[in-house]
Write a structure and sequence with these properties.
Blueprint lengths: L1 E6 L1 H4 L10 H11 L5 E4 L10 H7 L7 E5 L2 H5 L4 H17 L3 E5 L15 H21 L3 E2 L4 H9 L13 H26 L1
Parallel strand pairs: 1-2, 1-3, 3-4, 4-5
Helix pairs in contact: 2-8, 5-6
Organism: Modestobacter italicus (strain DSM 44449 / CECT 9708 / BC 501)
InterPro entries: Ester_Hydrolysis_Enzymes (IPR051532), SGNH_hydro (IPR013830), SGNH_hydro_sf (IPR036514)
Protein name: Lipolytic G-D-S-L Esterase
Length: 201
C-alpha cells in the first residue's frame, strides 16, 4: 500500500524528536500492525498553505497512492489566504487524488486557540475563526470525495492543558502530541483501507 502524506508542517512532522515520531511514521506503523505492507511517501512542506497543494500533487504524480493523508489549514489563517481560495484549492487537491483512485483523509484547520502565543482574551475569537475555516474546508473536501476528520475537541482540550504536548516552539506538537493525534486518526484511516479493500473485492 502506497501511503502519501501532503500538507503543512503538521503533516511533515515539525516538532517531533525524530522521523519515527511524525504523524506519517506513526500512522504507517498502525497500518502495518493491521496487516498492510506500506510504503510511506511524504511530500508535505512546512509553511505550506492550501494554495501549495497543487505543487505537492505534481511532485507526487508518480507515487500512484492508494491512501493519502492531507493536513492543512493553519497557515491559511496565519498567512491570511482568502478563505474561499483556500477551500477551493483544498477541494481541487482532493478531487485530483480521488481521480487517481486514492482514498483521502483530510485533517482540517486545528483549533489554534490552544497555542501559547494566543492571549487568553483572544482565544474565543481565534477558535471562532478556526471553526469557520474548518467548516469551509469540510464542505469542499467532502464534495470532492474526501473523508474529513477534525482533531476532536477533547484532544484540543488536552493540548490546552498540557504544555508537554507542544514542542519547544510552543506551536507544533511534540512527539507526545503527535502520538495522541495519530491515535485519534488511526481508526478512520483503517476504515478507509477496509473500504478500499471492499470496493476492490
Amino acid at each position: 500500500m502506497r501511503f502519501l502524506v501532503l500538507g503543512d508542517s503538521l503533516a511533515f512532522g515539525t516538532g517531533a524528536t525524530g522521523p519515527q515520531d511524525t504523524l506519517g511514521a506513526r500512522l504507517t506503523r498502525a497500518l502495518t500492525e493491521a496487516g498492510s505492507t506500506v510504503e510511506l511517501h511524504v511530500v508535505a512542506v512546512p509553511g505550506a498553505t492550501s494554495l501549495d497543494l497543487a505543487a505537492q500533487l505534481q511532485r507526487a504524480a508518480a507515487v500512484d497512492a492508494d491512501l493519502a493523508l492531507l493536513v492543512v489549514g493553519a497557515n491559511d489563517l496565519t498567512r491570511q489566504v482568502p478563505p474561499a481560495r483556500a477551500a477551493a484549492a483544498l477541494g481541487a487537491a482532493v478531487r485530483e487524488l480521488r481521480a487517481r483512485g486514492t482514498e483521502v483523509l483530510v485533517v482540517p484547520t486545528p483549533d489554534l486557540s490552544s497555542v501559547a502565543w494566543v492571549p487568553p482574551a483572544f482565544r474565543a475569537v481565534v477558535a471562532g475563526i478556526c471553526d469557520q475555516s474548518r467548516a469551509r474546508q469540510t464542505a469542499a473536501a467532502e464534495a470532492a470525495g474526501g473523508v474529513v476528520v477534525p482533531v476532536p475537541p477533547e484532544l484540543t482540550a488536552r493540548f490546552a492543558g498540557d504544555p508537554s504536548l507542544f514542542s519547544a516552539d510552543r506551536f507544533h506538537p511534540s512527539s507526545a502530541g503527535y502520538a495522541l493525534v495519530a491515535d485519534a486518526l488511526a481508526p478512520r484511516l483503517l476504515e478507509l483501507v477496509t473500504r478500499r479493500e471492499d470496493d476492490a473485492a
